[in-house]
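Let us practice reading a record.
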Amino acid sequence: MAKTQTMCPRCHQPALVDMRQLFDLNTDPQAKQILLSGNYNIVHCQNCGYQGAVPSPLVYHDPDKELLLTFFPPELGLPVNEQERMIGPIINQVVNALPLEKRKAYILRPQTMLTYQSMVEKILEGDGITKEMLDEQQKRVGLIQRLLTTSPDAIADVLKNEEPLIDAAFFSILNRLVEASLMQGDQRSARALAGVQKAALEETEFGRNLKKQAEETEAAVKSLQEASKQGLTREKLMELIITASSMTQVDTLVSMARAGLDYTFFEQLSTKINSTNGDEKKRLEDLRDHLLELTKEIDRVMQEEIANARALLDKILSETDIEKATEAGLDSMSDLFVELLRQEIQSARQLNDMVRLEKLQKIAGVIQKASAPPPEVQFIELLMSLEKPEERLKAMQENAALITPELVSLLNNIITQSEQQQNQPPEALEAIKNVYREVLKFSMEQNLKK
């Protein structure tokens, strides 16, 4: 992005902004996320402290969906011919970056979006997200905002009146808002949102069911962990499943221990069924039928995921630019893809297929780089691994450039999240608090020296 001089909307003094007008997925796989986030063309005025977006022409290009969209902010007040003059060179960048074989007819017919919102809706529509779906989401966001300004004694009444909106989407939005607040260091908003979440879990039917399912899932996980300490056998797994207090617990156990439900397991279960009678026999027969259907569905989904991982790997390997293709597919990669990649690398080595091995290693390199924690997180992990305060002080002195307000805020957020986790060991929480205090002290001393 080029540095562009503009005028601060508040004090009208010159200010610099990293101006971005082209969002091309052909050259930048993250372009869509950046555009939809709105985190671009932000001016930071050094004179008055103003921070806000600068209106600018925008061009969005997605070659896979054959989308070429343009938007010109009406507040710029320029005539159509002047708009075309400004947009034209940006579109030329799109065309020039495309290989000849990928220059299709849609490039000649860019779609003009009259509003920024219509551009966002068009982009999301390409992902299968309709305007109706966006409207439904906005209703839930509006309800959350309303609940945040409602007095505590009136929240239950609001939730009761708006109960049809309290569903999985509502809680998903709430969770994302809580996470975003914690990441930004806004603990006040995080606590307020957590209060809304608690009320929704207690005061609505969907919330109470969700809470109950979460508790049953947690109980199933704990029972499986306890059984695994002594070595998990088919007999122990069968006993856990048979004595589970709900189908939620049964489904959780099966999803976590699918490998244990093999032919021998069902053979042993059938033997147990044949040794019973009456209502208990009928219950176990129904349970067996459920387990068979559930394992069949799990296997189907697994095979589908494996096929998708294989298709993605083949697609990346067929591209000329392996690294670029890998970056474009990062969001679609799962643990299964990584495991498949590992197997393919091992196979290529055994077959001495150096050409394929080189391509596969390029993919692995991009994934490793993308999955590596940011330098700040790596530095926190380093500090946590050092036992003595003098060792941590030396590490901070050697990495003084990393001791920033953002690092202090990140440590504070980690402490807040750890305190909210009931199963967090006290010694681990105290250790991160010690690191936070030492980093804060070091930061303050550095500021005083400046």
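A brief commentary: The longest strand covers residues 2-7.
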